[in-house]
Write a structure and sequence with these properties.
two-stranded antiparallel sheet, globular
């Protein structure tokens, strides 16, 4: 993690959720329209998060199996 980045509070303990959906849409004509839609599940609790203009995405080895390393950073 870069020192200027900090964990985002949108979801408490995101590493407890399983990734059940991952959709990356890249607009080759206008990056501002690109996004990732991430669907997470913990027991019967489902969260759908949308990230606009994603960059610097890293996926751990073992994806999509739970790796326990899921974190959401605030890069604003």
């Amino acid at each position: 993690m870069h020192l200027s980045n900090k964990y985002h509070s949108i979801l408490e303990r995101p590493y407890e959720y399983k990734i059940v959906g991952f959709n990356f849409q890249d607009d080759l004509n206008d990056f501002q329209n690109s996004f990732i839609e991430l669907t997470l599940q913990k027991k019967s609790n489902i969260k759908i998060l949308k990230f606009l203009q994603p960059s610097g995405i890293r996926i751990e080895d073992g994806f999509p199996s739970p790796t326990g390393g899921l974190c959401i950073l605030d890069i604003s």
